[in-house]
């Protein structure tokens, strides 16, 4: 498996993976405006190209994506058939190693709270609902 930064021409495939996994695991628990807000975010190519995006590749297949804005994880998705195989941990470690972060934040979706706990994150508040309908739990990882 290869973990590396995603190049700009690969961003559409990365955002497609995020959208497909979001639809399966997150969208059913979100209000319609939250689903729309998520789609709008990942569809904004000008905004997305400024994210630091890592991908997990097996041969030529993209299996997982972690995208961050500085020390804040914005997107973190793994193909469902590859869950629980350590891909998320490898993506997270690549992200930490690349910039030497000693503190990372995330607004975890309800589905991913336990995933983040396994990576060493702790909640900093209860679940919240943003004005645009995104459900999340603020979490932090510190070295």
Automatic annotation (TrEMBL):
Pfam families assigned: Acetyltransf_10 (PF13673)
Q: Which residues form the signal peptide?
A: none
Source species, domain of life: Bacteria
Q: Which Gene3D superfamilies match?
A: 3.40.630.30
Which CDD domains does this entry report, sorted A to Z? NAT_SF
Every N-acetyltransferase domain range: 1-141
Matching PANTHER family, A to Z?
A: ACETYLTRANSFERASE (PTHR43451:SF1), ACETYLTRANSFERASE (GNAT) FAMILY PROTEIN (PTHR43451)
Protein name according to UniProt: GNAT family N-acetyltransferase
């Amino acid at each position: 498996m290869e973990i590396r930064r995603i190049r700009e021409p690969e961003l559409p495939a990365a955002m497609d993976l995020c959208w497909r996994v979001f639809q399966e695991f997150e969208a059913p628990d979100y209000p319609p405006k939250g689903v729309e807000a998520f789609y709008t975010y990942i569809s904004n190519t000008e905004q997305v190209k400024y994210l630091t995006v890592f991908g997990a590749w097996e041969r030529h297949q993209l299996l997982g994506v972690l995208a961050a804005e500085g020390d804040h994880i914005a997107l973190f998705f793994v193909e469902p058939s590859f869950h629980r195989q350590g891909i998320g941990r490898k993506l997270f470690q690549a992200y930490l190693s690349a910039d030497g972060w000693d503190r990372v934040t995330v607004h975890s979706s309800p589905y991913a709270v336990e995933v983040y706990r396994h990576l060493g994150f702790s909640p900093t508040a209860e679940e919240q609902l943003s004005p645009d309908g995104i459900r999340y739990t603020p979490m932090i990882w510190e070295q």
